[in-house]
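Quick look at the format.
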Amino acid sequence: MTDHLVEYGGKILNGGFSAKLCRRLTECITALEALDKISSPIIPYIAAWCGDGKIIWYEYVGKRFLTLLNCQRSEIAEVFQQSIVDRRLYRYADRETKVEEEIVTRAELRGDQSDLREKVKREGVVEFIYQLALPGEKTIWLKDQAMIEVFADDEICLSIGCLTEVTKEMEQKDLLEKIGYFDELTKLPKRAIMQRIIEINIGNLHRGHINDFVFMMLDLDHFKTVNDTHGHQAGDQVLVSLAEVMRSIKRQEDEIGRYGGEEFYGFSSGDLKNGLQFAERLRLAVEATDFVYNQQRIPVTVSIGLVAASQLVRIGKITVEELIRVADQRLYVAKQGGRNRVVGEDPQ
């Protein structure tokens, strides 16, 4: 039964199980062995457990999994379980679109796993992210995605899937959470990340990876009047609606965020012309949007000041501070010039 398989360390094929189960398992192992030979970034595996769900073992694991955990095939289940720091599940709440994160610690995972096995058996899928502590104080993250196949006659469940390393993504997620990346009200990136984005763009400009970029400052016109006339809850609703308008207008390569209060910031790839077009689209979209609170329409417009990096390169002052200063100065000019306008040049 196992003659043509490269390495087999499981239990099923030599354990007197049904021909149907053995045939299906052999097909899957053969396919995953072929996948493992092409140096794919994913790590294929087949796990199995009996109906009681108390003990899990591996019928097949990709070689990279053994290398990561530095163990033999016969040890993989025990070593993997001992390496887990926590297991995370992400899902969308029924009531709203935000993502809920469920974290189960190593201590909790040491308990009886029969409930978990029964749950994935019912749902037919596995999708978790594991944080693992490896020798040498190295921490990695593996995303686990698998389909569950149940063989009732044998009282065996197979989990056929793959592991993908997502260490960089999870480290970035943790970093963004630590620095408070998102504004709670508008859900836009906060000012705390703005300087880093500028630094990255300046670095890419100096290295020749990009030819130009535009930084802009945007301010709601007469926002104090909105708060005084309609109340601060209305003002908050206007800010939330403005953020939605900005998200709908920006291209994938553009960035937007909340600077503070009623001020926002933005980045646009390309030269000043592209930046002016992006800013003008924003201005027109805001002007055309019905901002409504308690069935009352609130007129809203914005003023925008922007600067292209190339404008500062010509005078040798391409710094984070100078970009912010010039964009803010041009925002002031837009305000003084009558509001609801875009300014991308210094007044003559």
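Next, a different chain entirely:
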Amino acid sequence: MTDKIRSMGKPGDKLVTLLLALCLLAVSITVGMVERSIMATVEDDGIRVPIIMYHSILKSAKVQTKYIVTPAQLEQDMLWLKNNGYTTVFIEDLINYVYDGVDLPPKPVVLTFDDGYYNNLTYLYPLLKKHGMKATVSIVGKYSEEFSQTLDLNPSYAHLTWDNLKQMDDSGLVEVLNHSYNMHSDAVRKGCKIMNGESEAEYKKIFSDDVMMTQELLSKNCGITPMTFTYPYGYICNESEEVLRSLGFKASLSCYEMVNVLTRDPQCLYSLKRFNRDSTLSTQGFMKRIK
């Protein structure tokens, strides 16, 4: 009888066990509520996504402008981003988040390189491999077509060939975007904007034909079909956005400077904002803008 009582334990022990169980249950419920609260905040307020806009990369500091950085500056930018917890992603990753709910890393950032300069292969590509980072390159179809024929591959002025683009895309480190076929100019027409006196129907055909020329060339020569269009010089109009949507593009890049807030609404992917990397600023000075 005594042994049976001992095996049942003392009444005080049972009370302590019960209280401990209740405490653990309360903690579990609280943690769950906090986790749900955090998730709800992300869904309600959106995810902050800074996008940085680069162009040409040249070694000589003498040619530095607000649109040309040195390889050393670019690497310093990459190191700063890594050391501050940022993870580089593609625009395609943003599209997958919005449309399919695919998770993004805690601090996503996009590195974009406009115009498809050959020096992106010379200097950017090795740095991406070295640091395990990703970047997006927007090409002008006519430029890539011309340099694919001449093969005059001088980093100072040449543009990426179809073979170059396929090599970079196949690596999984570079995303290739459409930057128009022959609308990278502000001499007469301002980039892709509709012109004064131009009918909407006429404009939509001209713009659509231009965009699809680069789509077809990329598909034929590289097996690439971009879902994002990068506006030359950032010129945008309502008609251009309508054309892009009708052609199946799910995102577009502007030159407005602001941190993007990503939600589940597909509208947030159009006219994405980007910060131009002015080489006259230090890495620390520039990166203050994206925080």
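The chain has two domains: 1-45, 48-287.

See the schema section for token definitions.
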